[in-house]
Amino acid sequence: MASNGKPKLALYWASSCGGCEIAVLALHEKILEVADAFDIVFWPCAMDFKEEDIKAMDDGSIDVCLFNGAIRNDDNEHMAHLLRQKSKVMVAFGSCAMEGCMPGLANFTDREQMMNFIYHDSPTTDNPESIEPQVITEVAEGELRLPAFWNTVRTLDQVVPVEYYLPGCPPEAKWIEVAVGAILSGELPPPGSVIGADVTVCDECPRTKSEKKITRFYRPQEIIPDPDICLLEQGIFCAGIATRGGCGALCPQVNMGCRGCYGPNEGVIDGGARLIGAIGSVIEGRTAEDIDAVLDTLPDPAGYFYRFSLPHSLLRRVHLVNDNGRNVAQPIKEVPRLDPSLNE
Q1: Peptide bond preceding 170: is omega within 30 degrees of 0, i.e. cis?
Q2: Is a pLDDT exceeding 80 seen at residue 4?
Q3: Residues 139 and 172 occupy one common structural domain
Q4: pTM for the full model?
Q5: DSSP assignment, residue 253?
Q6: Which residues neighbour 300 within 8 Å (Cβ) at sequence distance 6 or greater?
Q7: How many domains does the chain fold into?
Q8: Is 89 contained in some domain?
Q9: β-bridge pairing 142-145 and 39-42
């Protein structure tokens, strides 16, 4: 507890877009209640805190840390370990920390491929000297350092132990309120729990469902959907059939298919595999050729099915091997979570 009697709260932003930081502000005036209930001891996005402030604190002196973002580089890992050391309760806050989310799609390629495209091969790159970022660079003023960029994106719990998970991209304010309220009251669920609903987005969606089979998929710009009928039955990809609810089906209600940001429901080991099975069950087709014809209308299946969950899936990542000048992806089903070679 803080010297003023309030529990201490830390918030940190690793590899993510920053939407989770904004989601905290979506509490609106209730953010004042949070500020009144907690002593916010670390929130670099909002206040001028330094790493040294955290290092100077006693181990376990922070009551709760809301950590958002995937682990993408050495600095992300360093801060995860430091805040874990100083915190009693670590919360994987948002989809990036919980499942890897958009940064985790990088696991479909590798660091070398990304660096080559970004700094050499992209159509807009002008880099005649072939300069790439270095971990250490000597300049006249001294030594400059950058965090080492990992080959593999990891989730927070693949680096440090995590007590609770708050899903969403970003989490809805109402679930942040639930989490904060549970922390303040001491009525927390068992460690390892996801704080949220355990229904699917389909259960929350008001659209009419008739179990109609899909004969093809449409891109959003190719169709004006009926506002009352299930989007999936109209051929618009919607992950709500295999995604944890709690968002109120916000995307389907504005004619956008669920993307799956709240992750899988309780007991599902691989959210992408569950989604593949769910979508497969509603495709029209008696033969493999029929089914392939439907799937051919779905661009980037890997991106659709593992948009949020690749680092936390059974695939974890792919390794690219060179086959006669061709990069071939080889999925690795079992990867030790703390294998340091994956970061090289």
Answers
A1: yes
A2: no
A3: no
A4: 0.88
A5: G
A6: none
A7: 3
A8: yes
A9: unpaired
